[in-house]
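Students often ask why inverse folding is considered easier than folding. One informal answer: many sequences map to the same fold, so there is more than one right answer. In these notes we will look at a single instance of the problem. The structure comes first.
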């Protein structure tokens, strides 16, 4: 990490706040290996019990990427009966589609695909580009959670299992990506910069957000935190057993994500998300700092030819001219705080304060239990 994160802080040893926070998250959220296995078994038992006499006992999100593919493999091998859910936002690469098809066929997992209304989504993506924030991937992330939740509630499924994990994803500067669950932020940007009405776009409001993430129904489970998740080992397993094919970068199963992270973010905002991804792998001991530095010195794109192809494809698919796109790129960068959001409301701030206090109390109690068990 470097000062491309405007909020980065270094202590007297030269250690940044991201590494310190990573250590705190590992300490407070991940249990020792022997206890982790027991907790995984308990979790699987609860999921199976909740799904008795039902066709499925859990949902999994699938994108064709490493984490979601390995999650599907793990869930199936734990004896669970998942329904896979995929959001098709119009940007899937052919490789991502084939990875999903091969994986689910080999694992014998049913798939539900939600195809988003392209005209609405295109207008929303253009609104975020014109808003000039680094949060242009937020609409997709928000829609994924909304669809997973709605499918779970419709099928009376209590558990949604995600490929999100602390080991390889716990570092990401807040300034680089904000507002994932903030419908007020998304809706406000679209109202200001969009041109058509969002009639079918999957979303959840503030009350539903409270239900999903505070009341915990349905329950979102980051199952990779229950195992010793190693990226290289996971890739090797899914390549050998599921015939999965690597697409060459984190979240590059989406053409738009590949272009946004590899071109727009570095060029316009000077943000290179590889720094965060590689830093997490360093902190988890999966690569060395020297290896990460060599990697970050490379261009985000595998080739200039692919960069040119993606740029032409994205501009054409969004129905922009080259001049219009360059005009958007030339707009002064903005941030999440420049727009209205739930996060800016007093109620949200009070709720967040209370929730942080509760989490701190829980962490203290959990650490005390650990000490008593392993002392």
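Output (designed amino acids):
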């Amino acid at each position: 990490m470097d000062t491309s994160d405007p909020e980065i802080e270094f202590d007297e040893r030269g250690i940044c706040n991201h590494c310190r926070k990573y250590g705190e998250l590992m300490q407070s959220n991940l249990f020792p290996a022997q206890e982790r296995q027991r907790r995984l078994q308990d979790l699987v038992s609860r999921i199976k019990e909740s799904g008795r006499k039902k066709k499925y006992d859990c949902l999994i999100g699938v994108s064709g990427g490493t984490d979601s593919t390995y999650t599907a493999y793990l869930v199936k091998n734990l004896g669970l009966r998942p329904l896979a859910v995929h959001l098709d936002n119009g940007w899937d690469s052919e490789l991502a589609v084939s990875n999903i098809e091969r994986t689910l066929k080999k694992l014998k997992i049913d798939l539900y695909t939600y195809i988003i209304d392209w005209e609405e989504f295109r207008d929303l993506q253009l609104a975020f580009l014109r808003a000039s924030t680094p949060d242009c991937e937020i609409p997709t992330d928000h829609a994924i959670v909304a669809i997973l939740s709605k499918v779970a509630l419709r099928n009376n499924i209590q558990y949604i299992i995600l490929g999100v994990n602390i080991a390889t994803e716990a570092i990401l500067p807040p300034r680089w990506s904000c507002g994932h669950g903030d419908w007020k932020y998304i809706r406000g940007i679209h109202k200001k910069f969009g041109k058509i009405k969002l009639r079918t776009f999957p979303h959840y409001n503030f009350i539903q957000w409270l239900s999903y993430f505070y009341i915990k129904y349905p329950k979102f489970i980051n199952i990779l935190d229950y195992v010793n998740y190693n990226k290289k080992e996971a890739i090797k397993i899914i390549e050998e057993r599921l015939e999965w094919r690597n697409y060459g970068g984190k979240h590059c199963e989406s053409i738009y994500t590949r272009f946004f992270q590899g071109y727009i973010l570095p060029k316009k905002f000077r943000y290179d998300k590889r720094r965060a991804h590689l830093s997490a792998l360093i902190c988890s001991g999966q690569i060395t700092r020297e290896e990460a530095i060599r990697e970050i010195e490379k261009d985000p794109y595998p080739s200039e030819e692919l960069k040119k192809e993606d740029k032409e494809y994205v501009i054409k698919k969004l129905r922009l001219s080259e001049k219009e796109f360059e005009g958007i790129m030339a707009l002064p960068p903005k941030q999440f705080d420049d727009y209205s959001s739930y996060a800016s409301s007093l109620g949200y701030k009070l709720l967040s304060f209370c929730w942080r206090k509760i989490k701190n109390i829980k962490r203290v109690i959990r650490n005390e239990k650990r000490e008593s068990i392993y002392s």
